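Two proteins, back to back. First:
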Amino acid sequence: MAYSAPISPSLSFFKNPQLTRFSFPFSPLYSRPRIQNPSLLTKNKTWSSSVVVAATAAEKQKKRYPGESKGFVEEMRFVAMRLHTKEQAPKEGEKETKAPEERPVAKWEPTVEGYLRFLVDSKLVYDTLEGIIHQSTFPTYAEFKNTGLERAEKLETDLKWFKEQGYEIPEPTDTGKKYSQYLKDLSEKDPPSFICHFYNIYFAHSAGGRMIGRKVAERILDNRELEFYKWDGDLSGLLQNVREKLNKVAGEWTREEKNHCLEETEKSFKYSGEILRLILS
């Protein structure tokens, strides 16, 4: 499967460079010498062509995409980090802070009602992802069954606890429903893009998501740690296992398909950001 979609401006560093041939200057101060041996001309042409081919091959061999030497997961991580703000990721973030959820978590003013909307929409998204993975017979998705990163059941437990505390559990918002449907559509027609969302959702939650959960719990839940932020087993080991599976799957893709996957990162951040913003609603 190959994609012809152009690389977006924000990912312009993935464009292939224009490879140039070697050229040799000709000085007008010297007249063209008379060829004494015609076979020498043929040999020179052959040698010149060989130089061009060798130079082009060497240039292609040297071309590396950011993170490529460590595997495709590192390429995805590199692109994702660029879409963080400097406050979120001081060393790698490049995005200007604009949206409320992009401000430091310490400056947030979360509410229980908003947090519940966030949890409900998150559950819908994880239900969708995990349903697609577990029900699909597509080999690419089969790699990601029962990774240990699944969150839907954990969220079910948390929402049950909130209900026991007397809180009313809301219905999913239009934001969550829209993202859920988008993931379903991608899974059927665009596996590389779907894998991009899979990676960003699970890996972001295991990193920044945990920090957000801890800070919100300090503000509105008396430091209660929700099941959403707990994993059975060693999290670093679970993540490494999924990294290896992602690299294996991407190893079957063309460079064009890989770039297509990387371009989807912006949409993944857009949808996830809209759901995260619910905490502040």
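And the second protein:
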Amino acid sequence: MIIAAVVGFTIGLLLKTATVVAQQNVSFLNGLPENFTSDGAIDVQYTSCKVITDRIVATAEGKFSRFCHGICNINETNVRLHRIETLLTADAENIKQRLFHIERVLLSGQIISKPAVGDGGAGPVDTKRLREIGTYNGTVSTAEDGPTGNGRPRAPTIAAFVYYWRVDAFWRLSFGAANGLVRSPPFYVSPRSYRISLSVHSDVVARTVRVAAVSAAGEYDAQLRWPFAHRLRLSVLDQTDFEPEDIVSRIWDDVRCAATAETVCASMEFRHDVLTYRRYAVGDAIVVKLTVFLQ
């Protein structure tokens, strides 16, 4: 269709050019003196026709170039519109999957907490995950040394220190704070040992969450072996008793954080929308778990 339009445009332009040239040549010949020879008239007529034709061809080329440039812009616009349509379709599918998950959660009756007393509720409900936090937070117990499930053999258990940190008002932190960064109070991983704090950084531009274990200056740093001597693992709890699936980092067995404060010992990063797939953010709060393998 575009080719037909271009051909029609070119033919029309050439016909118009021929008409103009013929009219100008007739007017030119009418103005010549009677004693002017035919050969001279032909030479002058040829020169005049060539000048006029060159000027009209140049004008046509300019118009044709602008016409083609417009076609290119249309094609580029179509590509951009198609890209926008693809992104909107992906977002709509993502929203649909989230709604399906919310429906499944509501139908299965998965509840970990009720509104706080100040919100008109009766306070948190007793669940297995809350009991886990209350029992093991800040203690040394046994933990599996490696990933399990999906057909993998059960990993051996070794002594490990676990620490749970509840990050309240997470979404308000993400969209309200100046830099979206919050840090836990520092703590020791065992008596007379290393001191660490946890941090959560929510980046609204990149739509990512970064959870990290950061070294903190401690009273016993001069007596300890550096860099940090223990392996670490970070988790964000799935706050449900119904087959929970925590967000878990790899086991950091190459920790290089030093005695200086603010050194990252271990970290993991994931997108904001991951938190909506399951009950990772409940009551505008997430729970971060740090496991320190002491052997």
